[in-house]
UniProtKB/TrEMBL annotation:
<dbReference type="InterPro" id="IPR001754">
    <property type="entry name" value="OMPdeCOase_dom"/>
</dbReference>
<feature type="region of interest" description="Disordered">
    <location>
        <begin position="301"/>
        <end position="356"/>
    </location>
</feature>
<keyword id="KW-0456">Lyase</keyword>
<dbReference type="InterPro" id="IPR011995">
    <property type="entry name" value="OMPdecase_type-2"/>
</dbReference>
<comment type="pathway">
    <text>Pyrimidine metabolism; UMP biosynthesis via de novo pathway; UMP from orotate: step 2/2.</text>
</comment>
<dbReference type="Pfam" id="PF00215">
    <property type="entry name" value="OMPdecase"/>
</dbReference>
<feature type="domain" description="Orotidine 5'-phosphate decarboxylase">
    <location>
        <begin position="30"/>
        <end position="284"/>
    </location>
</feature>
<dbReference type="InterPro" id="IPR013785">
    <property type="entry name" value="Aldolase_TIM"/>
</dbReference>
<dbReference type="GO" id="GO:0044205">
    <property type="term" value="P:'de novo' UMP biosynthetic process"/>
</dbReference>
<protein>
    <recommendedName>
        <fullName>Orotidine-5'-phosphate decarboxylase</fullName>
        <ecNumber>4.1.1.23</ecNumber>
    </recommendedName>
</protein>
<dbReference type="GO" id="GO:0004590">
    <property type="term" value="F:orotidine-5'-phosphate decarboxylase activity"/>
</dbReference>
<keyword id="KW-0665">Pyrimidine biosynthesis</keyword>
<dbReference type="InterPro" id="IPR011060">
    <property type="entry name" value="RibuloseP-bd_barrel"/>
</dbReference>
<dbReference type="GO" id="GO:0006207">
    <property type="term" value="P:'de novo' pyrimidine nucleobase biosynthetic process"/>
</dbReference>
<comment type="similarity">
    <text>Belongs to the OMP decarboxylase family. Type 2 subfamily.</text>
</comment>
<feature type="compositionally biased region" description="Low complexity">
    <location>
        <begin position="310"/>
        <end position="356"/>
    </location>
</feature>
<keyword id="KW-0210">Decarboxylase</keyword>
Length: 356
């Protein structure tokens, strides 16, 4: 006969993902290797563009990431496109990653009505789940609170989530910086409301929480217009955009100024494009892991040279993300596009070179 868990056991489970991820980041650094079997990469690596090719690609990426990165993130649509065979391949590579002891994130970007979205806890979080993962990515378009039941299921099973807040693509900016017209976050940006709702799940957790955010590294200085201060968020922050999409060390320093060990930078194509040789993939992983670690260490000590920033932090509300939405004018000209143009790095369009 099984006995019901005590309140202490429940508390421990609800902070388990954050604890395991922060331990892994302390050991291996703040890099997550993105496993995205793009068609072009499969072809370049000499694999068929099918579920078997995606599975072999993923196994190689796993071997390169093992012991060199804190986590791996699987891009669900790039398996899903092969239907049942793709799902079976993803189940197997997730199993392999678990056997290696790696922290696994499935990038499925699910979202929906509270009553229906909860069903996916059976797929990812519960004991015996076919796609058992340590965390998944979520979209909050139905309202961040619509995710509450699913988040509870994740936490009660020692798992976590990453909720899209400020995505790395430029098209997201006008929606995410829109000013809310009603409710608790009236007058604040959409992204701010999402981050604040996410943060509520982390309050009271010692160390890093288990409810994370997605904040693209590409957004650069535009972070200030959103009202979000990543330094005040106590869950993990998954940050895509470094490398292939154009973000550099300077962007990590700008966006994550003052953060302390909770930023997990996810990189896919900049590593995979060095394959298929595992030694080359491993070398690329190590080099990028070093760059990212260095940038985030510098971000930690980032000097507060910006007075407006300092006053925004001072007036931060208890949601632990500073809420200066007054400055959220939604002007879409800073960040990605300015930088891409200024130094010729890839911005939105060239980021699609290896898309799909
Ligand atoms: O959900 C994501 O992980 C995600 C959010 C976001 O805002 N931007 C973003 O690029 N991603 C994902 O992060 C990965 C980035 O891959 P690379 O640009 O190749 O490093 C891809 O799997 C994207 O789908």
């Amino acid at each position: 006969m099984t006995t019901a868990p005590t309140s202490e056991e429940i508390r421990a489970l609800r902070s388990d993902f954050g604890l395991r991820l922060s331990n892994s980041m302390a050991k291996y650094g703040p890099l997550c290797v993105g496993i995205d079997p793009h068609r072009k990469l499969l072809t370049d690596w000499g694999y068929n563009v099918d579920a078997d090719g995606a599975e072999m690609f993923a196994m190689r990426m796993l071997q390169a990431a093992n012991g060199r990165a804190a986590a791996v993130k699987f891009q669900m649509p790039m398996f899903e496109r092969y239907g049942a065979k793709g799902f079976a391949a993803l189940e197997r590579v997730l199993y392999a990653a678990r056997q290696m002891g790696m922290i696994t994130i499935v990038d499925c970007l699910h979202g929906g009505l509270s009553t229906t979205i909860s069903a996916i806890a059976d797929a990812y979080f519960k004991p015996g789940a076919p796609l058992l993962a340590d965390a998944i990515t979520l979209l909050p378009y139905y309202g961040a609170r619509s995710l509450a039941n699913l988040i509870d299921d994740a936490l009660d099973n020692g798992r976590g989530v990453f909720i899209a807040s400020l995505t790395s693509n430029e098209e997201g900016r006008s929606l995410q910086s829109a000013i809310r017209q009603r409710g608790e976050y009236n007058g604040k940006t959409v992204a701010f409301g999402i981050a604040s709702t996410a943060q509520k799940h982390n309050v009271g957790i010692e160390g890093m929480g288990s409810v994370g955010l997605i904040v693209g590294a590409t957004i650069g200085k535009w972070i200030k217009e959103t009202g979000i201060d990543p330094a005040k968020f106590t869950g993990p922050i998954l940050s895509p955009g470094f490398g292939w999409q154009g973000a550099e060390a300077e962007d990590l320093k700008t966006v994550f100024k003052g953060t302390r060990g909770n930023v997990l930078v996810t990189v896919s194509r900049s590593i995979a494009s060095q394959g298929p040789d595992i030694a080359d993939l491993a070398a690329a992983t190590e080099a990028i892991a070093l760059d990212v670690r260095q940038a985030l260490m510098e971000a930690m000590d980032g000097d507060d040279d910006d007075e407006a920033d300092a006053s925004a932090s001072a007036s931060a509300d208890s949601a632990a993300v500073s809420g200066s939405s007054d400055s959220a004018s939604g002007s879409g000209s800073s960040g990605l596009s300015d930088k891409g143009a200024a130094d010729g790095r890839s911005s939105g369009s060239s980021a699609d070179d290896l898309a799909d």
